[in-house]
TrEMBL record:
<dbReference type="Pfam" id="PF13231">
    <property type="entry name" value="PMT_2"/>
</dbReference>
<protein>
    <submittedName>
        <fullName>Glycosyl transferase, family 39</fullName>
    </submittedName>
</protein>
<keyword id="KW-1003">Cell membrane</keyword>
<feature type="transmembrane region" description="Helical">
    <location>
        <begin position="458"/>
        <end position="483"/>
    </location>
</feature>
<feature type="transmembrane region" description="Helical">
    <location>
        <begin position="277"/>
        <end position="297"/>
    </location>
</feature>
<keyword id="KW-0472">Membrane</keyword>
<feature type="transmembrane region" description="Helical">
    <location>
        <begin position="421"/>
        <end position="446"/>
    </location>
</feature>
<feature type="region of interest" description="Disordered">
    <location>
        <begin position="1"/>
        <end position="59"/>
    </location>
</feature>
<keyword id="KW-0328">Glycosyltransferase</keyword>
<feature type="region of interest" description="Disordered">
    <location>
        <begin position="622"/>
        <end position="730"/>
    </location>
</feature>
<feature type="transmembrane region" description="Helical">
    <location>
        <begin position="152"/>
        <end position="172"/>
    </location>
</feature>
<feature type="transmembrane region" description="Helical">
    <location>
        <begin position="184"/>
        <end position="203"/>
    </location>
</feature>
<dbReference type="InterPro" id="IPR038731">
    <property type="entry name" value="RgtA/B/C-like"/>
</dbReference>
<dbReference type="GO" id="GO:0010041">
    <property type="term" value="P:response to iron(III) ion"/>
</dbReference>
<keyword id="KW-0812">Transmembrane</keyword>
<dbReference type="GO" id="GO:0009103">
    <property type="term" value="P:lipopolysaccharide biosynthetic process"/>
</dbReference>
<dbReference type="GO" id="GO:0005886">
    <property type="term" value="C:plasma membrane"/>
</dbReference>
Amino acid sequence: MSEQQDMNEPASATLGTTSESKGVASSGSNATAAPSGTTDTPGATTQKASQATATASGTPQRSMAARAFDLLAIFPLLPLTILLVLQTMGGFDARALWFSDEVRHADVYQNVIDAGKWLVLQLNGVPYPDKPPVYFWFLAALDMIPGVRPPMLFLLGAAVSGLAVLWATYALARATGNDKATGLAAGLILLSGFYFLGVTHYARMDLLFTAVITLSHLCMYKGWRRESAPAWLIAGYALAAVATLIKGPLGLAFPVLSSVLFVLWQGKVRRLHNRDAVAGFAVMLVILLGWVAAAWMTGESEYLRNIFQDQIVKRATATWHHAQPWWHYLATFPAAWLPWTLLLLTAPWGRVLRNPVRDALDTRKPEGLGTAYLWISLLSGVALLSAVSIKIVIYLLPLFPILAIITARCLLRLPATNSRVFYLLVSLLLFILAVGLGAVAALPLLPGSVRDALPPQALALLDIVAGAPVLGGVCLIFALLLFKATDRSQPRGALLTLVLFTTVFVQPMALYTAPSLDPVMSPKAQAEIIGAHAKEGYHPLSYRVYPGTYTFYAGTQLEEITQRDWALLDAALSAHPRAVIAMRLDDWEQWPNRPASAREIQRQWIVDRQFVVVVTESAAPDAAAATPEGAPVPTVETPAAAGTEGHAVPDAAPAPAVPVEAPASPAVETPATPSASPAPTDVAPAPQPEAITAPDAAAQDQPALPAMPAPQPVAPQQTGNDATAPGAPE
């Protein structure tokens, strides 16, 4: 089948079905307002006649926003790129890296660059089997851009990956038979989605993973439509292999499962055995086995065993964390796809379900194969994720481009009444957000009884969050614009208004609100304290803290004890009496046989748990005599911008043998301890959606490393932790 035939598949059906007649650009009262730039418009004469008829019948003319949409659809990738840049560029260097993936992956990247760990990744100096290396190669390529350096590099990587997702989504929309307007609408739907907007501002590999999977889908679809297409299938399988080396086996599972089901739907089982299919599969195996062989040759057989046994088999069948029931995604999807979930309430279901069996069978015809591939990929992807033991909302992200295309086909063909109701619901949602943000801004004015009823974590978090009035004002303004100043009967124009909202909303969020959450979301303050003490000769140590949490900002490796075993901690302190330790607050309070010299110097919430930094001193006589009894002892405080003071040292606390100096970062100061030390101010965690940080990790016992005489001991090997919960698991 020719390339032209691929591009001319009908895209007229609501919700992606093919029951509508070819040539309808928009259903309901919007049908007469089809733009002349679309492929379905018969011609300029017919367009003018349609507009004249619409005027005579009282149907409103296209709004200015709808005309702007049609203009942007001429070169769709340009406005999508500009909007993505506007949404992300302000946040590149505005905040610290957050717990857990951002700071941990930053340390992994430093090991790639500084230690040359290009094939076998390391975290805190030990093998890190949770992720393959390609994402970090991608970061290294961006690092070559002049002026780009960590930590800015990591958020730039998220933005560039988001742009790749937009371009891949548009390409897939066009490949499956949709016109430019539908491709543009699919990209705008992603840019106006709350969850996608958040992911573009959080440094993870999921966006790059999604972009490569989407391109693999495109190549697979092109290949399976033809009797022989070696170039397309080899490219599709190669991209599936690359996706697997970005994050894991789902990169292979999504496109291959869709391919098999699509070929079966066409009734061409033998097509799977053609030479081009075998060649593509072979290329995929060569890429994957090539990396496995290279890692094996470096002597990392245990690393590979961990990947296959723990990271793949156990995660799929009996995961140690984030295990959820099969219906988990049915419950979490509505929130992840807001505001577009509301479209389910306003779609013309009567027409869609008029003859579903016939419509489904129509997708087996050549003009319906694009629709068939999209639906097969979406439904099989949800089924695959639901069958896997581990479930995190961000795992849905590779399905977002496909879902955006289906949503765009539905949106652009909404009848006028349905469109009005949908955007009315969206305006109501924005109004609710405005009210909620206003309540956050008014929190200091609430009576004490109301404040006391709130959880302490949430209360402290709300006390430090900045910019709530501004964000609430933006929500209120756009709620009113959608309600009063936008022609809600024309979905194209109203879509532009919604994208404008997210673009404006994210500016104060990225520049003002997100940085204000650093004292809760980032371990930077405690890490820099640990790093400063390590430079003074203290042995850096963490006890039951999520591995790799502090290494990047501390600038040094920590000895990590990840299981609850006080004997291991005692042994480490016997070997290194002069130590700086990060631990949970509850462990600090329950520590049996706590050394007499142990003292807390800083306390901080990290997401949903309080952690303390503790120092212990050498009992050597010369150390004891280094500072007169009762002399003030230097301590380190949390940055003032956080609104949180470090836990001060009591007057009688023994002084360190060597004075502690503050690190170079302005965020950490080393003031002298006043005679009356203020108590630390606790800061509560931010409740996070599962896409960016997830719930606390489930049980996992890891062998802890015994105390070692080296100044920077090797931490225990990480075993299968992709959790995003603070602290070592119970």
